[in-house]
Specification:
The protein is globular and about 70 Å long. It contains ten helices and 25 strands. Strands 1, 2, 3, 4, 5, 6 and 7 form a seven-stranded mixed β-sheet that branches. Strands 11-10-9-14-24-21 form a six-stranded mixed β-sheet. It has about 475 residues and is of the alpha+beta class. It starts with 5 loop residues before the first helix and ends with a strand. It has two domains: about 220 residues, PmbA/TldD fold, CATH 3.30.2290; about 230 residues, no CATH class. GO terms for molecular function: metallopeptidase activity. This is Protease TldD. Belongs to the peptidase U62 family. One of its GO terms (cellular component) is cytosol.
Length: about 475
């Protein structure tokens, strides 16, 4: 990472600007280290670094953006002028002029997530050794395992947000991620197994839920067991969703529809503040903090406009309460910004993005919920899927288990589940007290990547299940 202290440089560049426009400076240093192994061989070992300053200027009612990879006052001042010129050149084409953001309490100080120094000082050799051992361990679990791969990635970020209206926030965060994948074969049929974990924090945070060997065991067992697993029956039915599937539903089918820029474009959540959109058992939130369990992969204290990344209660006891805002959509709605403005690299403009999105835990034990289901299906393991601005979704799952007369049956193959998000949430009749973050690995895409997390409890609801031949 860059050794020069960026604080006086950003403050001097802003002080010397002399203009009366709203100006945001964002220093962003990102370093990524990754290793991957397949078939006992190192497939990739890579270190990359991307450092610079992003500049956004609001002038004559519109934004201009520029960036520089030079950490010096003169280069940043030139970027400010470039952004200002871009804003003024496009101002005549903008009908709905933006006002300067109203005054809010902006973050000032140092905000470091735990684990940054500990992880950054460790050698990548230790990580490579574990990835090699993990891949070999998974591959040896069964003669039916024909291939395995494993990978480890860690992202270190240092940011500084300095604005003309008072923000001066400096953050450091580390996000490690570990994954293992297996392929099993029998009688010409192939099945895949996968386990992954991504967190915010130090190395040991990866193994709070399972050891490395347990992750490998789980991936291998999943692939082998699915070879002989039958297909579930399809149709509309009671479904018990695991925390990982709840997280996928929460993020993809609900979270994106309540991002204020999507709302303004006409998502299904538009105009529904104060109306019922779910069962009264459902409280859905998005938070910069890792709530209920440590280490959520989207954890941050301050967003990229200098706003504290507080918790947003999106749905409270079934009632839609809030959208996710940056400073400007919040001003148009007459509400406080929610700390959801994020950019992936220094040369990306901030967008409204989720952080850690979840459904709050309930009051029932999982065994109690299963006992209350006479005929249903338990599903786990996000596989793939899609959702649109109307909240309509279709997700693939890796594993399923029938529930008959309150008893969980033998493993079946995963199914596609589908429905309209708010309609499905309206059918929720049981929420477990168990809670897990389970989508911290990988990225959310919305024009640019973002590290997020999502999760929740086990959730009983009704939706369409696609069985074999459907």
């Amino acid at each position: 990472m860059v050794s020069t202290d960026p604080r006086p440089i950003l403050h001097d560049a802003l002080r010397l600007d002399g203009g009366d426009d709203h100006v945001e400076l964002r220093y962003h240093a990102k370093r990524t280290r990754s290793v991957s192994v397949e078939g006992g061989r190192v497939d990739q070992a890579k270190v990359s670094e991307h450092t610079g300053v992003g500049v956004r200027v609001l002038s004559q009612g519109t934004f201009g953006f520029a960036s520089t990879d030079q950490l010096e006052v003169g280069a940043i001042r030139r970027a400010i002028e470039t952004a200002r010129a871009a804003a003024r050149a496009s101002a005549s084409a903008r009908k709905d002029k933006l006002a300067p953001p109203p005054h809010v309490q902006l973050a000032v100080g140092q905000f470091d997530a735990p684990g940054f120094l500990e992880l950054s000082e460790a050698s990548i050799d230790e990580r490579l050794k574990l990835v090699l051992e993990l891949e070999a361990h998974a591959r040896k679990q069964s003669t039916k395992i024909v291939s395995a791969s494993s990978g480890y990635t860690e992202i270190f970020e240092e940011k500084g947000i300095v604005t003309s209206d008072g923000a001066s926030a400096w953050t450091r965060v580390a996000r490690p991620e570990l994954r293992v994948m297996t392929v099993a074969q029998d009688a010409g049929e192939l099945q895949r197994g996968a386990r992954s974990v991504g967190v915010t924090g130090a190395w040991d945070c990866l193994f709070r839920g399972a050891s490395a060997d347990e992750l490998g065991d789980g991936a291998a067992r999943m692939a082998v067991d699915l070879l002989s697993a039958p297909y579930p029956e399809g149709g509309r039915q009671k479904v018990l969703l695991s925390p990982s599937i709840v997280g996928l539903l929460t993020h993809e089918a609900v979270g994106h529809t309540v991002e204020a820029d999507f709302v303004e474009a006409g998502s299904c959540a538009r105009g529904r503040i104060g109306t019922r959109v779910a069962s009264d058992l459902v409280t859905l939130c998005d938070s910069g903090a890792s709530e209920f369990a440590d280490g959520a992969g989207g954890t941050l204290d301050v967003d990229d406009e200098g706003v504290r990344a507080k918790r947003v209660t999106i749905i409270e006891n079934g009632i839609l309460k809030s959208y996710l805002h940056d400073r400007h959509t919040a001003a148009r709605e007459g509400v406080a910004p929610t700390g959801n403005s994020r950019a992936w690299e220094y040369d990306d403009e901030p967008l409204i993005r989720m952080r850690n999105t979840y459904i709050a835990p309930g009051e029932q034990d999982l065994d109690e919920i299963i006992a209350g289901i006479s005929d249903g299906l338990m599903v786990d393991g996000p596989k793939n899927g899609q959702a649109d601005a109307n909240g309509e979704f279709m997700f693939g799952t890796l594993q399923a288990w029938p529930i008959k007369n309150g008893k969980k049956g033998e493993l079946q193959r995963g199914v596609n589940i589908s429905g309209m998000a708010f309609e499905v949430l309206g059918t929720v009749d049981a929420v477990s007290r168990d809670f897990r973050w389970d989508l911290g690995s990988g990225f959310c895409g919305k024009g640019q990547p973002a590290k997020v997390d999502a999760g929740g409890p086990w959730l009983s609801c009704k939706m369409l299940v696609g069985g074999r031949g459907q």
